[in-house]
Amino acid sequence: xxxxxxxxxILILLGVxxxxxxxxxxxxxxxxxxxxxxxPAAEQPKKPTDKVWxxxxxxxxxxxLIAIDKQAFYKTFTEGDSGxxxxxxxxxxxxxxxxxxxxxxxxxxxxxxxxxxxxxxHTDNIYIAIDNVIMQPKFPEGVNSDYVETVKSLxxxxxxxxxxxxxxxxxxxxTSDRLVEFQLRIxxxxxxxxxxxxxxxxxxxxxxxxxxxxxxxxxxxKALLRALNRRIDQLNRRGMCLKQxxxxxxxxxxxxxxxxxFPRYEVGYAADGEVTVKLPYNSITPLLxxxxxxxxxxxxxxxxxxxx
Length: 308
Hints:
The chain is an alpha+beta fold. It contains 6 helices and 10 strands. It has helices at residues 3-25, 107-119, 126-134, 214-217, 221-237, 290-298; strands at 65-80, 83-98, 148-151, 163-175, 179-189, 196-205, 210-211, 250-253, 257-262, 275-280. Strands 3-1-2-4-5-6-7 form a 7-stranded mixed β-sheet, covered by helices on one side. A 3-stranded antiparallel β-sheet has the order 8-9-10, covered by helices on one side. A hairpin with a 3-residue loop joins strand 4 (163-175) and strand 5 (179-189). The longest helix is centred in the first third of the chain and has 23 residues, at 3-25. The relative contact order is 0.12. Residues 21-61 have low confidence and may be disordered.
């Protein structure tokens, strides 16, 4: 091959490479590369009216739950007028966690809200919070607990007032396309006169990645309280005997309206127990925030997980 022929072949190869580059990056083969001024649909921010149809991987069932169940029992001795007395402590933590929310945005905000409401701890590590409760024995007031030992269980014949029992429970109450709602229950007892049973609710917005507060659902809380008391008046005219509410309690979002849950004795009497006052969405529409109206209109597929 002569020098002129070799030079001609090199020029041909360079030309082919240049055409290929133009084809790939210059727009001729645009289907092979993403357009730089267009955001892929999967990365575009959701509008407030967008529904969250599937927040979990396809392999996860909507009601698939992870269970955490831990118990611990303790014993101590004190000297009294009748001799040596034994006192006990029983700690129990039982949690349900929905697998479907794993990997969702700002999940640590939900962790912190649950831990604060259930344990009064300021951390986003649920296992640390559980251990802080389980590993901390507590006894009836006035009992000296300098010496504490662990036991397998509480005896069946522990006298009233000789044991402190606590139970912290987290359950998935209701799920939907956009929301996951949790029920939290804290029960403590050191005798009949010192028994407390508190039930709370947390509503997690999967689209926004935050726990909903009253400010998120209504614009005028004073007007909402008046609506609650009007509803209580209606219930009283139907035969109930409830007191007027002085505050807005814990709430949960149901398909047809907002349910406000008052602790025992707050608006009712001992026989009434916990009192739930229901306000349909259509009765308080002017009070709802745009975000809450969006949830009412677009959220769907409410489901109560199967009991485990």
